[in-house]
């Protein structure tokens, strides 16, 4: 007993000290865990607030100072008292095909345009114990948050104000049916029909749009036909007809649709059927014209209400036929992605209108009654005429594809206002009109003036007897394109919250549009003598009298065909003459993605 009492006397203070020490350490450990949790909550809140100022979410004007101020204010609201260091690092939170886990890539302050989020970290030196001087520990927490707006963007065109025959000719040429036509009902159906992404993925049996782009294009068209009500409906019938087009074979969905890597297309997004159709047609036209032949389109005055309206006011004109040849250099695509740059300094979401050449051959016949009346008045019945040929006006319209980039978007803040502003950099479509033809192999223009042998004059004289002379048209044309002032390159108040999944299509343009497009055609040179010298005074007087009506004929016909035929067709193909235009079909703001203590990669 005496021995045991001695041991207890020695051990008891040790045990009490150990218990007190363990209690202190447990209390300090709990304190440190609570502090670590508070710090984590503060950086989570700070990162969420700062991510609103990143390039893909911060709107047109972003700055490191704005992100840092937002992070500090949010952290203070969450209880940050200024102890320790708060660091805000802009960057890109993303996954890749090689690594599906989200990782954070920091970007320098000079390259904020690459950012879609931020990483906020907090470090703090804290004593291990408040009571026992046993050193200190460094506490560190971090969180990275990604926020961005993704938009579905199209520069493929618009069916508005386009006569059905123009688009029908193009579709007919692609599917091999010269008599094909598109009715106003079909145009209206195309313009107003959207296909839901979720429904399309289910129809195609794929999990995501990333998988969809590898599918054959004909399968996509078949799926769209089923979703829009089948081939019995106007829009379904037109889409179904395209599945038989010769140029569809070998094409994939990626030829008409681009999804920026890492952009997740939500199931409630939608694609416009008209834009898919136009891109399909343009891709097919390029395939068909690759062997070295223009895709030929024909318009007949007797079958076109548009052409009949153009020719009815030109008294000197007996008939008008227009032949169109299409050379496609680069078709347009639908594009889905965010507003930021990649590591090479290029905007990741870029789009284009069609890069095409359009060969227009206008055949205009003179009115025999008008010319007869004119010549009879001048010649007192001594000259008889014979119309030899129509005047053919060869025009080439080169529409270099306009290009654009999605450069800014501001994230919605919730509440009742879920509208955003979307910004774009647009490069005008270069449209050039000149007389000539397109080399079907190279696509280059061969200059060519207007030339036609138009009249054979039989002259009856007492002294010289009867002889003949000819009059020709040799002329050069200059076509000046102009329009009204440019629109701004920002779409304000675009709704993220759609009614019945159908967001309004909103468009903007860098310059002109088919609605305000004008063409000014001038005769640069005109000679009616066929290059001959020594014509009689009577023939020269007739040639002189014909200069004015033939000048009017050439200018009016060329002007009206360019404005009334070429401009609407270019618009239907996604090339508004003289400008670049873009349509936003829908925009989606992804849910904020927060990763705690995420790894940083180079």
Descriptors:
six-stranded antiparallel beta sheet; 12 helices; 602 residues; alpha+beta; single chain; six-stranded mixed beta sheet
- What gap, in angstroms, lies between the N and C termini? 71 Å
Number of E-type strands: 27
Strand content: 25-35%
**How much helical structure, as a percent, in the residues?**
25-40%
Described by strand count, sense and barrel closure, the largest sheet is: 6 strands, mixed
Account of the protein in words:
The protein is α+β, with helices and mostly antiparallel strands and 602 residues long. It has twelve helices and 27 strands. The strands form six sheets. It has a six-stranded mixed β-sheet, with helices on one face. The chain has a six-stranded antiparallel β-sheet with strand order 9-10-13-15-18-19. A hairpin with an 8-residue loop joins β1 and β2 (103-106). α4 crosses α9 (273-289) and α10 runs antiparallel to α12 (537-572). The mean pLDDT is 82.
Write a brief caption for the model.
The protein has twelve helices and 27 strands.
Draw up the topology in text.
Layout: H1 2-50, H2 64-77, E1 85-94, E2 103-106, E3 117-127, E4 136-146, E5 149-154, H3 164-175, H4 184-192, E6 194-196, H5 197-204, H6 209-212, H7 217-227, H8 234-242, E7 257-259, E8 270-272, H9 273-289, E9 295-300, H10 305-311, E10 317-330, E11 334-338, E12 350-352, E13 355-366, H11 368-379, E14 383-387, E15 391-400, E16 403-409, E17 419-427, E18 430-438, E19 445-447, E20 450-461, E21 465-482, E22 490-495, E23 506-509, E24 518-527, H12 537-572, E25 581-589, E26 593-596, E27 600-601
Parallel strand pairs: 2-27, 7-11
Antiparallel strand pairs: 1-2, 1-3, 3-4, 4-26, 5-11, 5-25, 6-8, 9-10, 10-13, 12-16, 13-15, 14-20, 15-18, 16-17, 17-22, 18-19, 20-21, 21-24, 23-25
